[in-house]
Write a structure and sequence with these properties.
Helix content: 40-55%
Oligomer: single chain
Order of helices and strands: HEHEEHEHEHEHEHEHEHH
Number of strands: 9
Structural class: alpha/beta
Strand content: 5-15%
Length: 256
């Protein structure tokens, strides 16, 4: 087997080059992780099976109804993560939304978060960024707006920028909630969403069906998963002045 593990570091031109190389090598299948990667790989080939993983909204991303494409979705239960925010801080009234407008993974989740705020009398402030520098500026703007918490969906741009912004939020005592455990590993207060170990196994099972059993991707509907896993960064929890035991108690009704 060749070594076909590649990481484009969220660079689109690199993604296109990786796709060209894989197609030229006539690989048997392409496993594309996250929405931007999946969209580019699917657009580059109609012949090689493309099995996407961790795509938040396959339909909005245009990844359904394609003969050679299927995979797994990490669609976010936005209402539950909003409940975590108010469970940890019942006095939270002003929520910041930090995301990349160009990320398909953020569209539905932000719309759902806005509806939750509207239905529950919460104010919100939106700030966007398409680069790490813009994400830093957006984070500073949210801090200046004195939001009580910040929410980011499974947004790849902000996840990449997290290492550059988490200290700003920690110093301002603002918890950052996001749609995947990777955010918490990079410094956000809480990452919430699907069990990515389970998602990875299911993605591998699909690859097995396609390559081992000869099942056509078109005959395998994309697979979603229950949310419910919360990952708390304990250092950030302490830095923003939250008590971990109290957070666990507050979160208990809504997650694992």
């Amino acid at each position: 087997y060749g070594d076909y593990y590649s990481n484009a570091q969220a660079d689109q031109s690199t993604l296109n080059q990786i796709a060209s190389d894989l197609i030229a090598d006539k690989v048997d299948a392409i496993v594309a992780i996250a929405t931007p990667t999946a969209k580019i790989m699917a657009a580059q080939t109609e012949d090689i099976p493309v099995i996407f993983a961790a795509v938040s909204d396959p339909e909005s991303a245009g990844l359904t109804g394609i003969a050679n494409v299927t995979g797994t979705s990490d669609a976010l239960d936005t209402e539950s993560i909003m409940k975590l925010i108010t469970a940890a801080n019942p006095n939270a009234k002003n929520i910041g939304f930090l995301y990349d407008l160009s990320q398909d993974s953020s569209t539905a989740a932000i719309a759902s978060a806005k509806k939750y705020c509207d239905d529950n009398g919460l104010a919100y402030v939106e700030k966007n960024g398409t680069t790490t520098t813009e994400a830093q500026q957006a984070a500073e703007a949210l801090i200046a707006a004195k939001v009580d918490a910040v929410f980011t969906p499974t947004d790849n741009t902000i996840m990449t920028a997290e290492l550059s912004i988490y200290e700003k939020f920690a110093e301002a005592k603002i918890p950052h909630y996001a749609g995947a455990d990777s955010f918490a590993l990079n410094g956000a207060f809480c990452g919430y969403g699907v069990d990515y170990v389970q998602l990875g196994v299911a993605t591998a099972d699909i690859v097995g069906k396609v390559l081992g059993e000869g099942t056509k991707p078109a005959d395998i509907p994309f697979e979603g998963f229950d949310n419910g896993i919360a990952t708390v960064n304990t250092e950030i929890c302490e830095a923003i002045g939250y008590d971990l035991a109290s957070v666990k108690t507050a979160f208990a009704p809504y997650c694992t």
